[in-house]
Design a protein that fits this description.
With 167 residues, the chain is α+β, with helices and mostly antiparallel strands. The protein has six helices and five strands. The strands form two sheets. A three-stranded antiparallel β-sheet has the order 1-2-3. The chain starts with 10 loop residues before the first helix and ends in a 9-residue tail after the last strand.
Length: 167
């Protein structure tokens, strides 16, 4: 097996070399910066994109707060790609920033979510997104069982939020 040193400059080249060849009549996959559109199979099949609402919201350079967004299911490539990222090699804590930037498909009206945006999010929002990522990719849903502190009754809530009073 031949070892290769990876730098930020040749990351895309390495990923292209390691992808299986496509037949000439097949179209190339969209670039990593253009995530696939949300897909839902007819008849209640696999759900691949999940809506969320951030607890605080991302504030862009213009001062606009973006709270609503969507995240797609992660692929094996999404989980492997950060492992060869130099920023992650230098600081393993950066893994979640890179990973989240790959699977968040929309944040408010921002469709090009990159690591710089995730870096500028409040810590509570990043923690929320990390938990949301784990839930949708491990459990396949965004619901959580909770207990009322007053009546001790158990019920389920949807963590993706939505209507007033939900989280």
């Amino acid at each position: 097996m031949r070892r290769r040193t990876v730098t930020a400059g040749n990351l895309e080249e390495i990923l292209q070399i390691t992808t299986p060849d496509r037949a000439p009549d097949q179209q190339a996959a969209p670039p990593a910066s253009a995530p696939p559109p949300p897909r839902h199979r007819e008849g209640g099949g696999l759900r691949t994109e999940f809506e969320f609402e951030l607890p605080r919201g991302y504030v862009d350079e213009a001062g606009t707060v973006h709270r609503h967004g969507s995240m797609r299911l992660a692929t094996a490539r999404d989980e492997l790609r950060p492992q060869i990222d130099l920023r992650v090699k230098e600081n393993p804590a950066y893994l979640s920033v890179v990973l989240l930037s790959q699977v968040i498909t929309r944040l408010g009206n921002i469709t090009d979510v990159h690591a710089g945006i995730v870096e500028r999010m409040y810590a509570t929002d990043v923690a929320f997104l990390q938990d949301f990522y784990r839930r949708v990719n491990s459990e396949g849903h965004t619901r959580a069982a909770v207990t009322c502190p007053h009546c001790e009754g158990g019920f389920e809530v949807d963590l993706s939020g939505g209507r007033l009073g939900e989280s």
